[in-house]
Automatic annotation (TrEMBL):
The species this protein was found in: Ursus maritimus (Polar bear)
Gene Ontology molecular function, alphabetical: D-ribulokinase activity
Annotated GO biological process: pentose metabolic process
Listed pathway(s): Carbohydrate metabolism; pentose and glucuronate interconversion
PANTHER family for this protein: FGGY CARBOHYDRATE KINASE DOMAIN-CONTAINING PROTEIN, RIBULOKINASE
SUPFAM superfamilies to which the protein is assigned, alphabetical: Actin-like ATPase domain
Protein's recorded name: FGGY carbohydrate kinase domain-containing protein
UniProt keywords, alphabetically: Kinase, Transferase
Organism placement in taxonomy: Eukaryota, Metazoa, Chordata, Craniata, Vertebrata
Domain Carbohydrate kinase FGGY N-terminal: from-to ranges: 11-267
Length: 568
């Protein structure tokens, strides 16, 4: 965040609530992270495809990490606080107390997580309406969005939850309410996950048609009837109670929040790439695709005009970068799938022991093991006989089919460490091919993409990054600041503080035409390294070398001729 009228020595705090943990960062005026802390959070899976969390547990974790990152500094220099979080559904009663989202009546488990697939029947019925709002979610609503989950609560937990509910929040909005007492929702959450239109507002006919007319009747008070753009300052800032919890001064500016993927997108998409010879240096920001890869991967592309991409969410106006339309492609499990494949393998205990002995992560160990066993051929060739279809939790984009399942072909009887390493590689390749399908769908609909900007936990894995470059044929840019999602959250706090409103013009010149509000300024960090690709090092077509037509049909691809030809 160079320049500006901000006080000398001003700091901003960003808090990022991911699926597995809560992270906080203390960020300075240049957008550099000075302190970082993280803390795991609880998750419950009371039955298959039901995933729950606790808003109290998450808030407690936010307090722990925030106190840690501000230790040793003068807290009066902190000017703003911003939150981002997964797009999970938080349920509170009229007195803002947690309500159970489960048959067990466990009220501390009051969050239906984003990856919860309990509302399959509800989302099918919603999609059957073919209501016009579905045009803005790629034509098919995902079971991971909020409307099907709300309908599930109404149909399954009427007495214990639905009738008592006073407030349904997206998790990022819950956090900003908890910090300020302001129930206004961020446009980011409502537009991307709740069918709200920034231009037209709520569509009464949708809620009536799907059986959730209750919201219309009470003027949407339970799901939000006051909206603010991300980064807007909320109320009187941090309440005394929240200030005590977080170890911060009361009254500091708190921003309207963002969903985690959107904060990551904001943290990377405006990066200064000059001097690396990248195609996107001379191109508008719309040639960049931010890929936020953690438990899931989210593919965030922006455009000047709305673009409708079948199977890809959006177009959403100003939901990530002000003034631009957003399309969001996604893969529901990527980090989670890699963990699942590796941890479930018979050779995992051996891997763990060997990695521990070398003081390495299992992934660093596996990457070096692949280098050892590759012999004279490129690593990509190790998987000529082993293929993974990665849709273990359905396909979010571009097939938008929650019924798809995962598949592995080419298994043998041996289950040693070499087999584990190769299965891990095939999984990473399959995920990267999933990204390629999303990029192709976006380009076919009108996006013109030249460069990937990766962030999130998986971007710390060099194999994952290189494989994405190889398989998409695009350079991948990583920022020097590895925790870019937190930078995005801190930008919100900086924006809410008002410190950056006057630095816009010089930075617009530097960014060669990126036209935004102050939100992108903090992205102005140096690049750590850039992977440039002269040509694909992976010759192997994805999965399908020897796939029969029958198999392609099983995979749900038969009718998509364009995609099938890619796979041959
Ligand atoms: N250094 C690393 N090397 C390889 N994989 C990593 C590394 N750090 C995190 N990951 C992977 O990233 C995923 C989690 O990313 P993260 O951004 O923390 O997720 P979330 O935001 O969903 O909580 C996990 O699958 C984890 O295994
Ligand atoms: O739908 C999403 C964003 O729109 C994300 O998949 C969801 O928020 C989970 O994120 P993460 O993988 O970082 O935990």
């Amino acid at each position: 965040m160079p320049g500006g009228d901000q006080e000398p020595g001003s700091y901003y705090v960003g808090v990022d609530v991911g699926t597995g943990s809560v992270r906080a960062a203390l960020v300075d005026q240049r957008g550099i992270i000075l302190a970082f802390a993280d803390q795991p959070i609880n998750r419950w899976e009371p039955q298959f495809n039901h995933h729950e969390q606790s808003s109290e547990d998450i808030w407690a974790a936010c307090c722990v990490v925030t106190k840690q990152v501000v230790q040793g500094i003068d807290v009066n220099q902190i000017r703003g606080l911003g939150f981002d979080a997964t797009c999970s559904l938080v349920v509170l009663d009229k007195q803002f107390r947690p309500l159970p989202v489960n048959h067990e009546g466990e009220s501390h488990r009051n969050i239906i997580m984003w990856l919860d697939h309990r509302a399959v029947s509800q989302v099918h019925r919603i999609n059957e309406t073919k209501h016009r709002v579905l045009q803005c979610v790629g034509g098919v609503m995902s079971v991971e969005m909020q409307a099907p989950k709300l309908l599930w609560l109404k149909e399954n937990l009427r007495e214990t939850c639905w009738d008592k509910a006073g407030h349904f929040f997206d998790l990022p909005d819950f956090l900003s309410w908890k910090a300020t007492g302001v129930t206004a929702r961020s446009l980011c959450s409502l537009v991307c996950k709740w069918t709200y239109s920034a231009e037209k507002g709520w569509d009464d006919s949708f809620w009536k048609m799907v059986g959730l007319e209750d919201f219309v009747a009470d003027n949407y008070s339970k799901i939000g009837n006051q909206m603010l753009p991300p980064g807007a300052s909320l109320g009187n800032g941090l309440t005394p109670e929240a200030a005590k919890d977080l170890g911060l001064p009361a009254g500091i500016a708190v921003a309207a929040s963002l969903i985690d993927a959107h904060a990551g997108g904001l943290g990377v998409i405006g990066a200064d790439v000059r001097g690396y010879g990248l195609a996107c240096e001379g191109q508008p920001v719309t040639s960049r695709l931010a890929v936020i890869c953690g438990t899931s991967s989210c593919h965030m592309g922006i455009s000047k005009d709305p673009i409708f991409v079948p199977g890809v969410w959006g177009p959403y106006f100003s939901a990530m970068v002000p003034g631009f339309w957003l399309n969001e492609g996604g893969q529901s499990v990527t980090g989670k799938l890699i963990d699942h494949m590796v941890q479930g393998h018979a050779a995992f205990p051996e891997l763990q022991a060997k990695a521990t002995a070398r003081c390495q992560s299992v992934y660093a160990y596996l990457n070096s093991h692949l280098d050892l066993i590759k012999k004279a051929r490129p690593v990509g060739f190790l998987t000529v006989d082993l293929h993974v279809w990665p849709d273990f939790h359905g396909n979010r984009s571009p097939l938008a089919d929650l019924t798809l399942k995962g598949m592995v072909t080419g298994l043998k009887l041996s289950q040693d460490l070499d087999d584990l390493a190769i299965l891990y590689l095939a999984t990473v390749q399959a995920i990267a091919f999933g990204t390629r399908l999303i990029v192709e769908a976006m380009e076919a609909a009108g996006h013109s993409l030249s460069t990937l900007f990766l962030c999130g936990g998986l971007s710390k894995n060099p194999l994952f990054v290189q494989t994405h470059a190889d398989i998409t044929g695009m350079p991948v840019v990583l920022s020097q600041e590895a925790e870019s999602v937190l930078v995005g959250a801190a930008v919100l706090g900086a924006c809410a503080s008002g410190d950056f409103t006057s630095v816009q013009n010089p930075l617009i010149r530097k960014t060669r035409g990126i036209r935004t509000s102050t939100l992108l300024w903090v992205c102005w960090f140096k690049l750590g390294w850039v992977t440039k690709l002269s040509g694909s090092s992976v010759e192997q077509p994805y999965l399908a070398i020897r796939c029969s037509d029958k198999m392609l049909w099983v995979l749900g691809l038969k009718e998509r001729e364009g995609k099938v030809s890619l796979m041959r």
